[in-house]
């Protein structure tokens, strides 16, 4: 009986290339359908390989999920950190820079956001704990950013900051979901759209405060 070497692939495709294909398909399946509804068989069918081959390359379904999750989490964290780093005075506001970074990081793999924010992960599983670790790291950055915005507005109420952090997470999730449903919209188009929406919201809330 022969076994595939670390470099061998299937149907003439090198193993490294086939693994990338499997991860791309699995990321979309997990992001689109959630962990619970995704099957290794469905991923294999999309790539055109057998289910045993996927198991051979990546192990269990949870192992395959983790192989998708970690690159997604690391990419998003890196993008957000870079967006929040030092910038010149003429740069867009921090929220807009973060949104642009998210859209750019997710361009071509929009469903990846929902690999990280998946409510169907088995409780107390390694998958749930690892996803929570990435989400907590993103939340820490969001907490820093929202606290800075509120301090600039003259308020330091920690509950205000916590509420705004949760609202920001919901906004990002809603925008990515809308973006998935509008595949013709590019990352740059989404950034410009968000700039208009943020300006409109700022004006609306300012007008409301003046009337109050």
Q: Could you characterize the architecture of this molecule?
A:
Keywords: DNA-binding. It is a single chain. The protein has 9 helices and no strands. The protein has helices at about 15-35, 40-45, 50-60, 60-85, 95-105, 115, 125-150, 160-180, 185-210. It is mostly helical. The protein has a domain at about 70-205: Tetracycline Repressor, domain 2 (Orthogonal Bundle).
Summarize this structure as a short list of keywords or feature phrases.
mainly alpha; Tetracycline Repressor, domain 2; 9 helices; 71% helix; 0% strand
CATH top level assignment of the domain at 69-207: Mainly Alpha
Rg on CA atoms, Å = 20 Å
Q: Provide the low-confidence segments as ranges.
A: 1-7
Work out the helix count.
Answer: 9
Which term fits the overall shape?
A: elongated
Domain HTH tetR-type: 16-76
DNA-binding region: 39-58
Protein name: TetR family transcriptional regulator
Keywords: DNA-binding
Blueprint of the fold:
Blueprint: H1 15-33, H2 40-47, H3 51-58, H4 61-84, H5 94-106, H6 113-116, H7 126-152, H8 158-180, H9 187-211
Helix pairs in contact: 1-2, 1-4, 2-3, 4-5, 4-7, 5-9, 7-8
């Amino acid at each position: 009986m022969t076994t595939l070497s670390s470099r061998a692939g299937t149907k003439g495709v090198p193993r490294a290339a086939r693994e990338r294909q499997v991860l791309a398909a699995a990321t979309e399946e997990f992001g689109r359908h959630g962990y619970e509804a995704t099957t290794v068989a469905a991923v294999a069918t999309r790539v055109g390989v057998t289910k045993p081959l996927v198991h051979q390359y990546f192990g269990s379904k949870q192992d395959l999920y983790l192989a998708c999750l970690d690159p997604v989490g690391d990419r998003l964290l890196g993008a957000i950190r870079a967006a929040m780093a030092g910038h010149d005075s003429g740069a867009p506001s921090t929220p807009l820079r973060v949104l642009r970074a998210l859209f750019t990081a997710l361009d071509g793999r929009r469903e990846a956001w929902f690999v990280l924010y998946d409510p169907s992960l088995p409780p107390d599983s390694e998958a749930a704990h690892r996803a929570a670790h990435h989400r907590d790291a993103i939340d820490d950055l969001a907490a820093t950013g929202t606290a800075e915005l509120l301090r600039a507005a003259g308020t330091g109420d920690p509950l205000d900051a916590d509420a705004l952090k949760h609202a920001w997470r919901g906004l990002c999730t809603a925008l990515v979901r809308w973006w998935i449903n509008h595949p013709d919209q590019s990352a740059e188009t989404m950034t410009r759209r968000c700039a208009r929406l943020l300006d409109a919201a700022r004006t609306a809330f300012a007008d409301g405060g003046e009337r109050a």
